[in-house]
Amino acid sequence: MSLASCNPGINLSEYLRRCALGKNIIVVPGIRDLIINVKSIISNLNQITNKVNNGTITILGDNLKEIKEELKEVTIKISKVVKKI
Q1: pLDDT higher than threshold 80 for residue 80
Q2: 4 contacts 26 by C-beta, under 8 angstroms
Q3: Would you list the domain boundaries of the chain?
Q4: What pLDDT, in 10s, does the model give residues 40-49?
Q5: DSSP characters over 11-72
């Protein structure tokens, strides 16, 4: 279970059910960090969207460039993790 704890979304009950049913449990190292990165990017997009909808900001160029770079980095990391599986 200590290995499975690094797999977000799986708790002890789910782990035990999978073990009892004989299903494979895949632990993906580094996936938690990737999920945190994606949630951060989503949060940034939500903040920008709210500001645009409220009329607080109208120019998005720099904000979108930064988010685009973050998404590119996370996409590369996700591809590397998926290749290991």
Answers
A1: yes
A2: no
A3: 4-84
A4: 888 888 888 8
A5: -HHHHHHHHHTT------TTHHHHHHHHHHHHHHHHHHHHHHHHTS----HHHHHHHHHHHH
HSE on the CB side for 42, CA within 13 Å?
Answer: 6
pTM exceeds cut of 0.70: no
When computed from its CA atoms, the radius of gyration of the chain, rounded to whole angstroms, is: 18
Q: Which residues contact 8 (CB under 8 A, 6 or more apart)?
A: 31, 32, 35
Report the 10 Å Cβ neighbour count for 16. 12
Residue 62 pLDDT exceeds 70: yes
One-letter amino acid identity for 41?
I
Cβ neighbour number for residue 23 with a 10 Å cutoff: 9
d(CA 24, CA 38): 26
